[in-house]
Amino acid sequence: MSITQLHKNDHFFIVKNDEVMIKSDIQIELLEKIIKNYCKGIETFEVEGYFIHVLDTSQGNLFYVKPIMQYSYIDFMNPLSIKVLNSISDGVTVCDCDGKILFQNDIDIEIVGIDLMGKYAKDAIAEGIMSDSISMKVIESKEKVTILQTFINGKCFLVSGKPIFDEYGELQYVVAITRDMTQLKLLEKEVKKLEIQNENFKNKLHALHNKENTKSSLIAVSSAMMQVVERVMRVAVVDSTVLIGGESGVGKEEITKLIHANSRRHNKQILTINCSAIPENLLESELFGYEAGAFTGASRGGKAGLFEIASGGTVFLDEIGEMPLLLQAKLLRVLQESEVQRLGSGKPIPIDVRIIAATNRNLAEMVRQGNFREDLYYRLNIIPIEIPPLRHRREDIIPLINHFLAVVEEKYSIHRTIESSAMKILESYDWPGNVRQLKNMVERICLLATQPEITAFIVQQELDSNPIIKRDLEVPVEIQCIQEPVVTPKFSGTLKEQIASFEKQIIKEALSKYPSIRKAAKSLGCDQSTLVRKIQKFQLTKQISYKD
Ligand SMILES: Nc1ncnc2c1ncn2[C@@H]1O[C@H](COP(=O)(O)OP(=O)(O)OP(=O)(O)O)[C@@H](O)[C@H]1O
């Protein structure tokens, strides 16, 4: 029998005073002594103060070394079991029915920080190694127990213990799973942190969204518009109802945003409803909400109306002149009582909103004709703000154009300028569609222009050459007639020289205006060969690029 016949991975215990001292690892020297004294069957040897129980279990020449104890360590200690138990990420301990720790996997030793193999749980508590023992609790209750256990190293663990019974129903082992709560606690903290971050992001997004909705980039240069802004700033801080009048597209909504942004409600939302865009029956439920089952198709839980949703904020009622008379009465009640009643409910709900209404209609005239309630008119008209049409404040036109050019640049990353002569034409135009029309026109011209500078001539060319663009541009008649201002050249020299200069100028213009020599020749009433000759004579080929 030689030591080499022992399997390299075999495990054995060395037991001293009934305590397991060494687990695993073949200790060559010690084993040599055991082998030397080897005898068949069960024998006990004392080697260097350790009691060694040697058992020949092999049919062949394989040895297992067992400690002097009744416990079947072999069951736990076989290499596969150990590998499996060491591969899981939780700590695993196994105790016997007296609370003696028979097995502790590597993770358990690592997370607890103490090797407890061979120790009695009660001793570990007495020595202050553990605050509590799961095995003792399971042994007492003979049931599954889960506790939070603190170890001497300050670590906190969630330990679940489960009893294992033998075939006679006697408690045999306690298996405990130890989960390091430090990691979980860290994760919990991390989740909390992420939740806070998430909440912050949501708030920021909400604020951004709100800002986007309420942001006012109002351009006001003319004294007429400055007066409007001054009035706006004064009324913004008080909470009264405002009625904004003015033609379509003058900026009534823009002014509303400015009022809201400068009011105490600026952190809350501003909700807009266009009274002319929603059918009467829908408008009522949108504004006032409804109770469950208020009408066929009403959603089961009922619905809050705009006044309720906008609580703390501002409600902008656009096109108030289009509000049906029946709803006007309801709105009056909202204004007077500061409360709403949902459709199908008699219960008043208090609301806290500021109402700003706008119209492009003559409400006073509508009142006279009986199409608008007089009492509502006076209730809304506490602070009237009239925005003049763009044609009455022409000083705003060029600043507005520059503003919209900047908007286009930011939105589409294209830089465009408008030549001063084109600006003049735009400035003198009447803009029946007001700022909205101007804004749309600037955006479209910028997007369609092929050159960075938009000239009056280019606009004309675009309009002339592309009927679709012409139609699409919705360009006012005045602008469709834009012509490149004719610059009369100053000539000097002999009659012949002056005629030649004039001829050169005419040909140059024709070449720049028409895409081909053929078309240019046709416009000049000469044939192509004559034109080509003249181009060469006046050396225009190098200066003018043209396609043929
Ligand atoms: N003074 C201004 N400065 C900058 N942009 C403006 C100005 N006035 C109006 N606008 C812009 O012109 C467009 C039309 O304005 P707005 O919707 O406020 O007009 P409105 O009077 O409410 O129109 P409607 O009567 O048709 O509802 C919007 O895109 C708005 O941002």
TrEMBL record:
Alphabetic keyword roster: Aromatic hydrocarbons catabolism, ATP-binding, Coiled coil, DNA-binding, Nucleotide-binding, Transcription, Transcription regulation
The protein, known as: HTH-type transcriptional regulatory protein TyrR
Domain Sigma-54 factor interaction positions: 218-447
Coiled coil location: 177-211
Family matches, as PROSITE patterns: PAC, SIGMA54_INTERACT_1, SIGMA54_INTERACT_2, SIGMA54_INTERACT_3, SIGMA54_INTERACT_4
Keyword Transcription tagged: yes
InterPro entries: AAA+_ATPase, AAA_lid_NorR, Homeodomain-like_sf, HTH_TyrR, P-loop_NTPase, PAS-assoc_C, PAS-like_dom_sf, Sigma_54_int
Pfam families: AAA_lid_14, HTH_50, Sigma54_activat
PANTHER family tied to this protein: C4-DICARBOXYLATE TRANSPORT TRANSCRIPTIONAL REGULATORY PROTEIN DCTD, TRANSCRIPTIONAL REGULATORY PROTEIN
SUPFAM superfamilies, alphabetized: Homeodomain-like, P-loop containing nucleoside triphosphate hydrolases, PYP-like sensor domain (PAS domain)
Domain spans labelled PAC: 141-193
